[in-house]
Design brief:
With 96 residues, the protein is an alpha+beta fold. It has a domain of 61 residues. It is built from three helices and three strands, in the order βββααα. A three-stranded antiparallel β-sheet has the order 1-2-3, covered by helices on one side. A hairpin with a 2-residue loop joins strand 1 and strand 2. The N terminus is likely disordered.
């Protein structure tokens, strides 16, 4: 399983762990309760960390299997649109 989410509660400490596969490494996000921190505040901190690590985007991308040929086609289309924008709408450099 490429992504698993566990929520465990031990006394007053919540450990939220998300495993994200980056290459062959398994990255874990853990959050411990700070002093006088509510569960809502902890959850907000956890969501910010997940967003910072691009976990939500990764989960949505891996939700369905994508054939390698489709992945290549999507990358090729993205490169073509980028080249089109660069040729037809060049970025103006600011004069600072």
């Amino acid at each position: 399983m490429p992504l698993a989410m566990r929520l465990r509660m031990r006394s007053n400490t919540w450990l939220n762990t998300v495993f994200n596969r980056k290459g062959d490494q398994l990255m874990a996000i853990r959050i411990k309760a700070r002093q006088n921190e509510s569960a809502g505040q902890m959850l907000r901190r956890f969501k910010k960390l997940c967003e910072k690590e691009n976990l939500i985007k990764d989960v949505k991308k891996r939700q369905y299997f994508e054939k390698p040929s489709e992945r290549k086609r999507r990358a090729r289309r993205k490169a073509e649109s980028r080249r089109y924008r660069e040729l037809n709408f060049p970025q103006q450099r600011s004069r600072s």
